[in-house]
Amino acid sequence: MSGQTLTDRIAAAQYTLTGSEVSRAVCKATTHEQTAPKKKHLEYLIQATQDSNVNVPQMADTLLERVGNASWVVVFKALITTHHLMVNGNERFLQFLASRNTLFNLSNFLDKTGSHGYDMSTFIRRYSRYLNEKAFAYRQMSFDFGRVKKGADGAMRTMSVEKLLKGMPILQSQIDSLLDFEVNPKDLNNGVINACFLLLFKDLIKLYACYNDGIINLLEKFFQMKRSQCKDGLEIYKRFLTRMTRVSEFFKIAEQVGIDKNDIPELTQAPESLLESLETHLNTLEGKKP
To answer: What's the pLDDT at 3?
Structure first.
């Protein structure tokens, strides 16, 4: 179904009557039209998160209400709108989502109205898991991996060993849940899922930069770490190597669907000898003979 439905208009009108401009903008961003949420509505909501007079819990509740809709289009757009606000809104929006015990409970979501509904429902279930993981990571770390400073003096490069060994598995889980979206170019066939894919792509670039920083920090500290820390560190590094293949596959899909090659980071493969030297060092600490 394309175009705004009567239901969309009634929902927006209800909020107009109650005087909630924010809720009205949420409804406008999450109509039944098979297009990405309109930029003007997203910008209004992003700006609203910066306003100390705006009730952020109420805004989040309106979005969660829209996520309870039966239509895959409305639900998908509500998730996309939430994702936009998590990334571009005031951090207090993300803080509020992270403080909730449950966020999106869509593991059984299914829109049975046609084959398109079935197909898109699969991606909605996966996408909601990623957004849950993103909020959970914030709750665990008290910062957003996507927002922190990157590079030589960035958060992951300057982190202590203890914090790094705690933070890297959390970051890995967030990256895994993003990669579990598992989309093919042929699935990117409407404005809604395309908008979602672009947000995931942008998140992955930031998460990969954090991941890379964390690995550099880990390798710099590895030979000074305690035996138990080296053991954990080696597992983190091994998982990093396997993740790189999946990250590379995701970036290939981005290129296939027309994302500018200059926007896609180049992944450099670490030499195998590096893994061998880490394993040899751990074996030495554990008293094993080469």
So the answer is: 58
Dist CA 99 CA 53 (whole Å): 20
130: which 2 tokens? 């990623």
**CA pair distance 223, 52, nearest whole angstrom:** 48
SS3 sequence of the chain: CCCCCHHHHHHHHHHHHHCCHHHHHHHHHCCCCCCCCCHHHHHHHHHHHHCCCCCHHHHHHHHHHHHCCCCHHHHHHHHHHHHHHHHHCCHHHHHHHHHCCCCCCCCCCCCCCCHHHHHHHHHHHHHHHHHHHHHHHHHHHCCCCCCCCCCCCCCCCCCCHHHHHHHHHHHHHHHHHHHCCCCCHHHCCCHHHHHHHHHHHHHHHHHHHHHHHHHHHHHHHHHHCCHHHHHHHHHHHHHHHHHHHHHHHHHHHHHHCCCCHHHCCCCCCCCHHHHHHHHHHHHHHCCCCC
pLDDT of residue 162: 97
Please tell me the pTM assigned to this model. Answer: 0.92
Q: What is the pLDDT of residue 182?
A: 97
d(CA 92, CA 96) in angstroms, rounded, equals: 6
Cα dihedral: 257, 259, 265, 271 (round 10): 20
The pLDDT score that the predictor gives to residue 19 is 47
Asked if the model's pLDDT at residue 18 lies above 60, the reply is no
Residue 257, helix vs strand vs coil: coil
Q: Taking all residues of the chain, what is their mean pLDDT, rounded to a whole number?
A: 92
Half-sphere exposure of 219 (CA within 13 A, CB side): 14
d(CA 5, CA 1): 8
**Mean pLDDT across 44-53:** 95
User: Residue 208, exposed/middle/buried by CB under 10 A (0-12, 13-18, 19+)?
Assistant: buried
